[in-house]
Each structure stands twice: as structure tokens, then as C-alpha cells.
Amino acid sequence: MEKLAVTFPPGALLSSLTARLVVSSESMMSQVQRIQSLIALLAAGIGIIFFVDPVPQDLAYHNFADTRGWLGIPNFGDVASNAGFLVVGVIALVTLMHRREELFRTPAEMRPYLLFFVGVTLVGFGSGYYHWAPSNASLLWDRLPMSIAFMAISAAVVADRISAPAGNGWVLAVLLVLGLASLFYWDWTESSGRGDLRFYGLVQFYPMLALPVIIWTFHDHHYTIGRYLGRVIAWYGLSKVLEYFDRGIFELTGNLVSGHSLKHLAAAVATYMVLRMLMAASAQPAPASHADRAQTKTS
Q1: First to last CA, the chain
Q2: Are the C-beta atoms of residues 224 and 215 closer than 8 Å to each other?
């Protein structure tokens, strides 16, 4: 039997299939159903942690590959590489304040991004402090600003794709409180001799599962441009790989630089992609609101 020839290029086929999948994901699920799926995912995460024994912080986590000091600074590579967060955070905060009317449609929409870059800036200090003398006590000050940044960007996605009043208001506040509370709970359990990272793990990893679902199923957006979020995820993913191979990279480079030092730089680039995303969003026309689109369809 003769084979049928494909009459259009693979790129067109991929675009067509992607467009169909995007349309079908919106048409098959109402907004209420999509929100219910996120709630179900959260309920599943909460249920799982009650079937897992308390997880203390592994003390081996503090044993980094590059422990060389320089200029009187211990663990110089891991301390100094946090400068990337400071540079990105300060540049972003100055940009947001000086160009806020250009970048944001309302002051409320700037709120989660402002908190995100405040968190990024504080990571530079907190992580530097931790790597100066790694311990569970100093690790708290590394994770606190990271939690602020994670929760703020999660709220920003909710605000842009689901509900601006919720994402810029109570969702942002609740996420920040939960993130900080999970860390203070972990610190309290460690000081009591029964460390428990389960709730911190839930607060950190649930957004990593929920955000792709939100991006895939809630398509209307202005700020959270998909290709930039993809770059954020890619750079952050690279940072985790570099962190995992900390000692191997240190040996591979002839003790020049460790994987953990490179991890800081890759994560800083990920945060810079958020600023690039906001600048790209300001260069495109704002989409019509849900109410405007509904009125257009009925007229």
C-alpha cells in the first residue's frame, strides 16, 4: 500500500496541535472546575504529608564542596556568588519604582512583583550570611527571603491569570503568612530536637505543581508571558542541577568553581527573567478584561 505524504510542514502541524490543545483545555473545563482542580491538588498534598514521618534537616546539607576563604571571607565562592541576587534585586526595584506607571496598569498590580524583588534582594544578604557559617540556625535566614520571593511570584500568576483582586490581595497575604509560618515551625522543631520540614516542603513544592496547571488552563494574561516563565523555570531548573552536582563540578573545573556557586548565578538569572517579562509585557497592548470580552460577545 502506498504511503500518504504529509502535505504541510512539521512546524505547522505542531502549532496546529498546540492551538487545539489550548482551546480544548479551556472549553472542556469551566473556571470553577479549574479552580476545584487546584484545590484538589492542595488537598492531596496536605493529605500526603500526614502519611509521611517528620523530616529533619540533613546536617550533611551544610557540607559544601568549596570551603576556601579569601580576603578574610570564609567559603568565599558561595558567599560572593550571592552578589547576583543583590544586583538583580536592586536593578529591578529601581526599575519598578521609576517606571511603575509604564510597567503596571494599577498600583495593586505592582505589589506582588515589588515583594518578589524585595525577597530577591534579601536573598543576597540571607544566603550570604548562611554560607559564611553554614548551620541550621543560619539556614533559616537563607530560606526566609526565598519564601517571600516564591510566594510573591505565585500570587502574581494568580492575579494575572485567575483573579487580580484575589492575587494582589488576600491570596498574596495568605501565601506570605503560610510560607513564613512553615519556616518558623521548622526552626522551632529543629530547636526542640525533632526537626520537621514537611510543611515547608508543601508550601514550596505545591506552587511548583500548581503554577504549570494555572498557566496551562488559564490562558488570559498580561504580565505572565509564557515564554519568559519558561525561561524562569529553565534557569531555576539548571540551578538545582548545579546544586546537586556541587562537588562534581568543583572537581571537573579543577577546583576553580563549585556547582553551588554556579547555582546562585543561575538562580539570579532566573529572577532577572521576571524583570525582562515585565518589560516585555509593557511593550504590548493590555488585553481586554473578562467583562469587556463578555460584553463584546453579547453585543
Answers
A1: 53
A2: yes
98: left (phi over 0), alpha (psi -120 to 50) or beta: alpha
How far apart are the C-alpha atoms of 115 and 129, rounded to whole Å? 21
92 CB-near residues (< 8 Å, 6+ apart): 117, 120, 271, 272, 274, 275
Q: pLDDT of 5-60, one tens digit each?
A: 444 444 444 444 444 444 444 545 676 777 777 777 777 777 788 888 889 999 99
- How large is the C-alpha radius of gyration of the chain? 22
* Amino acid, single-letter form, for residue 142: D
State the DSSP code for 107. H
Q: Find, among 229, 239, 228, the residue nearest to 265 by Cα.
A: 239
| Residues whose CB is less than 8 angstroms from the CB of residue 196 and which lie 6 or more positions away in sequence, other chains included | 54, 55, 56, 185, 186, 189
Which tens digit of pLDDT belongs to each residue from 252-288? 999 999 999 999 999 999 999 999 999 999 887 765 5
Give the total residue count for the chain: 299
Question: Amino acid letter at 201?
Answer: G
Say which residue the cell 539570579 belongs to. 268
